[in-house]
Design brief:
With 233 residues, this protein is an all-alpha fold. Helix content is 56%, strand content 0%. Among the domains are: 14-98, no CATH class; 186-233.
Length: 233
């Protein structure tokens, strides 16, 4: 990853900033003269490296894309055991170049807390129950009869063989039955979501997108299971 050097002379070039490599310019000891041969050669070489890493699927390419992600967003990886100290230096350089961020005012903080207090804190079970038009009083006899008349009667002519409780039921093999492939669906959604992002970061961002979808699906599954347990009780 390199080490933070003391002599910083070049400001980020637009091409390097577009490649999320502004830190390379801030680490460069070349004179701050735009359009120099050294700058053009550096930009051209970094572009070739990015293209090579984006096309590759070997271990070196994946490792290179990881390093590019660290250089593009060092503040998100400054806890890394190997590169953390260097990345912290990158964060300082980028912050100094962009200028310090103004601290939030007391009015802004108060507005955030007020918005949080005003946000409705609903309950899934209570919200569903409140949608019941007869939650306060049961339907009239006439309404109940009208609803009953609309229900079609189904004649089950073949109820099948009754299960013997003392007999072990064999598990049905459903491996060959088609169904939703959640992993494939997540990957397709992730590829669509990151298609406008820089090419060398698409794989990393896609993995993050897939992980978020899986976590959200797991959270929903836990909520449904908790609701089932509550209804059983």
């Amino acid at each position: 990853m390199g080490s933070v050097c003391n002599g910083l002379m070049s400001l980020p070039r637009r091409a390097m900033s577009d490649m999320s490599l502004a830190i390379c310019c801030l680490m460069c000891d070349a004179p701050d003269d735009a359009g120099t041969a050294r700058c053009k050669a550096c930009i051209r070489q970094h572009g070739k490296v990015r293209e090579r890493l984006a096309r590759g699927d070997d271990g070196v390419s994946r490792w290179g894309r990881e390093l590019l992600a660290m250089m593009a967003n060092p503040d998100q990886y400054d806890f890394d055991n190997v590169h953390g100290e260097v990345l912290q230096g990158y964060v300082r350089l980028l912050t100094e170049h962009e200028g310090p961020r103004a601290a939030p005012t007391q009015d802004e903080i108060d507005a955030l807390f007020a918005a949080a207090r005003a946000r409705p804190k609903g309950s899934l079970i209570r919200d569903m129950a409140n949608r019941n038009p007869w939650k306060d009083s049961p339907p009239s006899v006439q309404s109940a009869r009208e609803m009953s008349d609309k229900i079609e009667e189904i004649a089950d002519s073949d109820v099948g063989q009754r299960t013997v409780p003392s007999r072990e039921i064999e598990r049905v093999d459903r491996s060959d039955r088609p169904g939703e492939d959640a992993a494939l669906t997540d990957r397709v959604s992730a590829n669509v979501a990151v298609q406008d992002e820089p090419e060398e970061l698409q794989d990393i961002l896609a993995d993050v997108h897939v992980a978020k979808r899986k976590a959200k699906r797991d959270e929903l599954t836990d909520a449904v299971e908790g609701l089932d347990d509550l209804l059983d009780d």
